[in-house]
Amino acid sequence: MSKLIAIVGVGLMGGSVAKALRRCHNDTQLIGIAPSRSELEPALELGLIDWAFSLAQLPHIPAELVIACTPISEIVPALAQVAEAVPAHTLFTDVGSTKQEVLEQASRYPWAERFVGAHPLAGSEKSGWSASQGDLFDNRVCILTPTKQNPESMVQRCAEFWQSLGCRIEYLPADVHDEILARTSHLPHIGAAILAALVNPKEKIFTAGGWRDTTRIASGNPQLWQGILLSNAPAIQQALKLFAERLEEFRLALAQADEARLHQLLLEGKVARDDLGS
Amino acid sequence: MSKLIAIVGVGLMGGSVAKALRRCHNDTQLIGIAPSRSELEPALELGLIDWAFSLAQLPHIPAELVIACTPISEIVPALAQVAEAVPAHTLFTDVGSTKQEVLEQASRYPWAERFVGAHPLAGSEKSGWSASQGDLFDNRVCILTPTKQNPESMVQRCAEFWQSLGCRIEYLPADVHDEILARTSHLPHIGAAILAALVNPKEKIFTAGGWRDTTRIASGNPQLWQGILLSNAPAIQQALKLFAERLEEFRLALAQADEARLHQLLLEGKVARDDLGS
Known about the structure:
The structure is a homodimer of 278-residue chains. The first copy, chain A, is α/β, with parallel strands linked by helices and 278 residues long.
């Protein structure tokens, strides 16, 4: 008997999950779910998914797993709707970039114990299912943020699922996840957006590889990122404070022509970056 | 008769100039000059340069062109030494990342009219001649910052030289160059150094492509970058101010959960970045 997996939201992440499943799970049938069925038509026609349903008109779906790949603010509302259509043993997971708020919202629902929060560290500045890639998760870290409500068996099943797509599993409490990701992902996004906005179109010819790389992620979808940033506002505000303090140290070192301090600040960045390679 | 070109400083940039010359100017003999002759031995043995001299012990060098590829603070002192060894018609140029201070220092010397400041927008977070590449300048913009002292013929010869290495030439006044590069290159470097330093070694596994790209240039040589930043301190301080203002706007939008403002800030970054591609 073939397995049944439902993907809610078939954009960059949902599309990549679908393609990875096609590659790694030949025996699995895929259901695409979205606010409107029409947006799923292209994925359906290409055979990326086997069925397509709108969130508002779900039939009974005997799926063993549901993966929410929607924007952050829609994860829990969407899963709440899907929960009405699936059996009581169905496992829920997601790909959300922040975890505390989502898990807090989910905790009000009876299916919260079957929802294991996940964050595969993979993505792109592009969006939409046409940018999706079947190898997006290959050898990437997927952070699971299980709660006390999650039975160990559910966490295990969830880990095995993400491993089957090529991920290496790491576990973090949701609040620790959000605090770290504020510095490794959300702050860099803000920095990229600022650096990009400070250069006007006529000056683009005077940019090189450095600006190109430091600003690439500024091309990300503003609607998606607005949701991510707002859902992790306290941790990001703390990260912004750390960033602003160090920015002020650079300003001071320049104002005072303090070579030693400037060297030290640059060296700390170099040491922190060097071990990762280019 | 073959041409003679001297390269002062044979690191990443000087080595790349040499390799590009080998590729594009078969009839040219190359002289490497460095503070100590011993550091030029490897390049000499590999045939990257034809002769090697220490700055302190220069013979008469009938070079038609001298390219200073030293750290910023050493450009003018090195050229002043080389000027004693070359004919009165020799053209000087450089690869310095900032231009106003260098040209101001050079203006005290009689050879200032033969020194055409250049900044090829090409580089790497790596340093040293072993990281040099013969195609580093292919299709890159090279900014020339001629002064009123430079005869048109000297500027023209300099432009033709950089074009012959594959560069597209743009002209800017030195102060405009420095103000723009503060935002397109120096500020991104500071941002990368800060983002890198805010993530500790144990947290590296929780980084993905975004952090990797936004911090790549933090691996640059702190000694070189300290010199670049200090030589453009006023413009960079102004750029830091613009950056800090926008950082504060992000903080405020997050603190006030101001979706519209956050969206606008992210959109401005996206619009500014999108036309450059990934």
